[in-house]
Amino acid sequence: MTQSCDVLVIGGGPAGIAAASRAAEAGARTMVVDEGASPGGQIWRPKLTGHQPSVARQWLARLAASEATVSPRTTVVDLQVSAPRSFIVRAERSGIPTIIGARALVLATGARERFLPFPGWTLPNVFGIGGAQALLKSGTRFDGKRVVIAGTGPLLLPVAASLSAAGAKLLVVAEQSSRARVARFAAGLWNAPATLAQAARYRAGFFGAPYSMNSWVVRAEGDDRLRRVVVRVGTETRTLECDALCTGYGLVPNTELARLLGCVMRGSVVFVDADQSTSTDGVYCAGEPTGVAGVDSAIAEGQVAGLAAAGRASDAAPLRRVVSRRAAHGRGLDRAFALRPEIHTLAASDTIVCRCEDVRLGQLDRGWSARQGKLYTRAGMGPCQGRICGPALECLMGWSADSVRPPVFPARVRTLSSPAKTGDSAETSERNHDAPA
Amino acid sequence: MTSARRADAIVIGAGIVGAACAAALARDGFQVTVLDRAFPSAGTTSVGMGHIVAMDDSPEQLALSAYAQRLWHDLAPELDPRSELDHCGTLWVAEDDAQFAAVRAKRDVYAAAGIASEILDARALADAEPNLRPGLAGALYVTGDMVVYPPGATLRLLDIARANGARVRSGEEAVEILPNGVRCVHETYHAEVVINAAGPLAARLTPGLPIVPRKGHLAITDRYLGFVRHQLVELGYLTSAHVMTNESVAFNVQPRATGQVLIGSSRELVEWEASLNRDILAQMLRRAEAFMPALGELSVIRTWTGFRPATPDKLPLIGPWDAVPGLWIASGHEGLGITTSLSTARLLVDQIVGRAPAIDPTPYWPARVHSASAA
Ligand SMILES: Cc1cc2nc3c(=O)[nH]c(=O)nc-3n(C[C@H](O)[C@H](O)[C@H](O)COP(=O)(O)OP(=O)(O)OC[C@H]3O[C@@H](n4cnc5c(N)ncnc54)[C@H](O)[C@@H]3O)c2cc1C
Ligand SMILES: Cc1cc2nc3c(=O)[nH]c(=O)nc-3n(C[C@H](O)[C@H](O)[C@H](O)COP(=O)(O)OP(=O)(O)OC[C@H]3O[C@@H](n4cnc5c(N)ncnc54)[C@H](O)[C@@H]3O)c2cc1C
User: Fold this and answer.
1) Which of A139, A161, A312, A433 is the most buried (most CB within 10 A)?
2) B240 and A417: CB-CB below 8 Å?
3) Residues B286 and B216 in one domain
């Protein structure tokens, strides 16, 4: 199936929704694709229980009222520049190969969780924040379950509040950062009272449990499932019998599509200018891939990117102040919740570091590069292609990410073999089809 | 196993060819130093398919690859799990009756070279590989062919070399080959014997070697144990590999020990342009689907490209390079270097020490380059 549009927004989270709404309102033929069953991304995806915050309802309604086409259950697996400001995007829509031609792209692919290996992290009932949220959204009750939450950053608070509301008995919320750093960050929020108020509301949501700074999980123990965790609290080590452990070590921006297009990076994030334009002409980027700064930032950046992609960058002027203020907030987050050195050395030699290929830390050699680790032990060679173990190995071994190759997500052979029917490329490829004979 | 102490030898390149040479030299008593500008298996060896195959593009190629097949069988007990050795054999698939007739001729050629093979008719082929499309004419089953994981086999060969006293230096780039020596960035090494095993980069060190990069694409799937049971190659593959056209694709599918399916193959002459050519990839996959329609539903997790070290006459360059005292060449193996690494190493070492080689070494001598250009 082949389609075309002026602006293709990849990712239907807050950034993508804002981008698609603004681009469509500006008159561009706009399409937004997302892997999920409906738009919303990480935080606005419809829940079975509870209700959406009003900002989510407003933006979802605005998108619905716009002329933008929404294509759910659509995963982009490859894209390329076919001519200046002309892109061919290969996707799977519910498994069906789909080719989309576009004049401009907005990459709003969000972020994924960072998993850090520690002894026992692969035991059943050890979750990431995303896993815990998925359980909560599917209506799972946690009545009387003893839960430990550990990790770093503001994302621990809403999960703690929701788990508490779902009946869990929280033993501790362990934040690895220091009280001083967190306090300095909170003090910097004086100009973002809403954020502070929200944090206070979340904190109130799990008031019965200690929110402990300078604390982290040293290891998890159990048999067929988790039985207890060993937690370091300041200088003390405590063993807590529990039923579930939920960890969150921050987010990793999804930059694969931008890297595939050769967009210039700044460290681990995509470099963008004031119009959210990347170094590749016609490619814009918004939300987490430009730096993890939260939902308000994603919305502001998405609007700028959508307007700019539709050729109306001048209308974005009022939004730029929000974007730069939120970017400063993002940098503050990075500083406040930077991982302490002890976290990098928790994994033991028999701790699994690559779940897809079952590779243990002891198989790796510090003298190697990431590519050697991969070639010699298969670490990062599995279906996740290093999306999960890559950031972990960066943290444990100091290895930087390997190159990105299509497909960015596993894709059927026939998705990659279907001819790209835009322009004349299909014709040339058919002509050479019988070459081997 | 180690015989009397011999001279020093330097091997430039820790790809599979350099590793095989290092193991053979060290076992023969040489004091071996392997230099690689990156690390073991950094080059073409890390991107190839790992099919150990007797190939009959020419009598010389068949002699070298048949010898190699025997050497891989001898080495098998010494390989470790990293090498992922699989005795799966090759099925040369015939699409129609005309090709099936060629299967019989191929069997006779192989038999004459001491390579065992069986003819499978349409029924037997369908039983052997249920996922092939119906209506194929049959196949030649070469039972002694194998599949390895090339980087793993390379590490193993280097371990064998090390166990016999060799040193392996990563991050050491040869800048110039000297008479009986090699100049690197920080250090100059001296040795009676120097082997240029720099793969597709060999001509940078030895100008005059007629080696060009011939690009290939591969795609690998998730795990589907038993989906493919033998290495499958269409009979037309040899034509595709032989004719130096700008681009061609052929059906060439390999079962990995992990249960993954590795899908090849393509050939292009585009210098060192490494980026993925989506049209070629799509053609290559369509060719594979034409033989195995069910393949279309499998999930691809990664694609990549690599450069075969190609020569104009499709034979590798193995032997002395008279212009530089002490220099020997072991490169230009195109799409067969995983297979012929072992026979290359043995031929080379036999000639260095003055033993009679098991097969005639002269067709692979790099000197043919001069006679070709003089003619
Ligand atoms: C596990 C997790 C939990 C979080 N919990 C919270 C929380 O409780 N509170 C909070 O404020 N923030 C939370 N965040 C952060 C929050 O999601 C972001 O701040 C905000 O959603 C950023 O919006 P976005 O549009 O950039 O990304 P996202 O909301 O992540 O949206 C990106 C969308 O793009 C889709 N996508 C990505 N790649 C492709 C592709 N190749 N093809 C098609 N679609 C694609 C994704 O499926 C997703 O729907 C969480 C993030 C994660 C990863
Ligand atoms: C797509 C594809 C599929 C293939 N499939 C098969 C197959 O199924 N079966 C088969 O038998 N063969 C196959 N091949 C061919 C095979 O991979 C190659 O012939 C073989 O790997 C060549 O090995 P090499 O050691 O000569 O070169 P390389 O592996 O490239 O090794 C050369 C080494 O030299 C080093 N080097 C280069 N220059 C210098 C320098 N100046 N100083 C120091 N070090 C240097 C490099 O870093 C490298 O490690 C395939 C190839 C491709 C591309």
Assistant:
1) A161
2) no
3) yes
